[in-house]
Amino acid sequence: MKFNLASVFETVADAVPDRIILSYDGDGFTYAQMDAMTTQVAHLMAAHGIGRDDKVALYLKNSVEHVAALLGMLKIGAVPVNINYRYTAPELEYIFTNSDSAAVAVELPEHQQTLAGLLGKLPELRVIFVIGETTGELAAAAAEHGIALVDFADAKDQSAERDFPERTGEELYIIYTGGTTGYPKGVVWHHDDFFRKPISGGNPYGPPRESYEELAREVTNFPSIAFLIAAPLMHGAASYSLFTFLSLGGRLILEREFDAATIVGNIERDRPQTILIVGDAMGLPLVEELERAAGEVDMSSIFMIASGGAIWSKSVRDRYTAINPDWVLRDNFGASESGNDGEIELDENGNLKVPANPRMMVVDERFEQITTPHEVGHIARVGNIPQGYYKDPEKTARTFPTMADGTRISVLGDMGYVDDDGGIVFLGRGSQCINTGGEKVYAEEVESILRGHPAIADVLVVPVPDPKYGQQVAAVVEIRAEQPGPTTAELQEFCRQSLAGYKVPRTVVVVDEVRRTPAGKADYRWAKATAEATV
């Protein structure tokens, strides 16, 4: 059988209707309440012409309405389009048009203002669902371009009956992912593949669920886990986590936006057991607040801090351990194009490594599997993978090739090798490989070591020209405010303890802030230009 995400939610809601599904700003909503609310949202969207395969852009910060809109549209087979609200107008225009969005859900006045200026450039847009008060600017622009404006609150007047068309599990779910270069790409998943891979078949702690009946039975026996999503819901890692813990009948704790002081201040009220962050960008400010609050805030409810979507440095992880050595720290390895690939670990040699599992392999340039230990190739994901990139057959063919035996795989450019024990060592993106005198250096490998230095807040490693070796390794670093700046020689000596000499940065450039894209990804173009300006 094939799973549909809306049916998964409804199955859990029927099995544990009185459990709390969502805690937001001190309020709690049960599964039964959320099911009724999202059913009404589904009918509201349908009443305004939104149906199966229509794309609905969620131009929203975290909120109850964000969750309701997401789950509601899934009930009628509409397709969510995640919008990074940090994007500029040209970037937003690209995503709205590339995704063929028929509807947009929007809330904040500044977002309405930006959207109003784009309406004349969005030919597929038919309706805007507004949460809260509509600005005059948006109302005027919508009237000018013949686009319907709908008050999201009108959903309360709709039916709460589940009279929806039959679902197949082949409905679509799109995640737009921001890369280090170019515009974001829309990764297209079938619901069934999304359920089985990104959300681990509804059970990340054991065998996947194989039927709705099994899901209903097991969720009643599984204790409710309180899971705080510190990341914005427009981030792929957050949406994966939302559906994973929803499938377990868990309680999701949502903050309006990431603010470390607010999160720590609400720990005693919300009693989270697991907290999701996205790498050091969230992990560092959160641990600093936890350190300040140690002994003042009751943190006894917490048993796990999990990171996904970005590398989580050892130095920051060690600070969490210093607060409470019993906390479980989990660094999830995955991507929008592959889902949940497992836990990434730092082995005794300082390598980033994923334990052996049937969902990953290493392949050569012909997409044949490499089994010889330490032979470098492309890391490939196997099994339930996306259908491809929305409206981009060329990139789809390149990223999701088919092996000689007919197996479709996902190859994202990550390089690595199979270790002696069958685990896969992650070296870094091939596109960020530095060739210095014929030796290959992977940027992420050097970055992971430098992040271990107590004075380094953030770092990007890039190639710069070298008259003798062609390229040399350069590091663009941001120094922590409270730390004295280390010299280039000191950083080089620190690296030599873990890296071969040719991998040690010969150039170190200190900047006020390491620049990243609005999606939080490394801006290697900026880093390369910054480094080259100094040599």
From TrEMBL:
Keyword presence, Transcription: no
InterPro entries: AMP-bd_C, AMP-bd_C_sf, AMP-binding_CS, AMP-dep_synth/lig_dom, ANL_N_sf, ATP-dep_AMP-bd_enzyme
Tagged with keyword Ligase: yes
AMP-binding enzyme C-terminal domain residues: 445-521
GO molecular function annotation: acid-thiol ligase activity
Pfam families hit by this protein: AMP-binding, AMP-binding_C
SUPFAM superfamilies given in the database record: Acetyl-CoA synthetase-like
Domain called AMP-dependent synthetase/ligase: residue spans: 9-380
Swiss-Prot/TrEMBL keywords: Ligase
Xref: NCBIfam families: PRK07798.1 (NF005863)
PANTHER family to which the protein is assigned, alphabetical: LONG-CHAIN-FATTY-ACID--COA LIGASE (PTHR43767), NONRIBOSOMAL PEPTIDE SYNTHASE PES1 (EUROFUNG)-RELATED (PTHR43767:SF1)
Protein name: Putative fatty-acid--CoA ligase
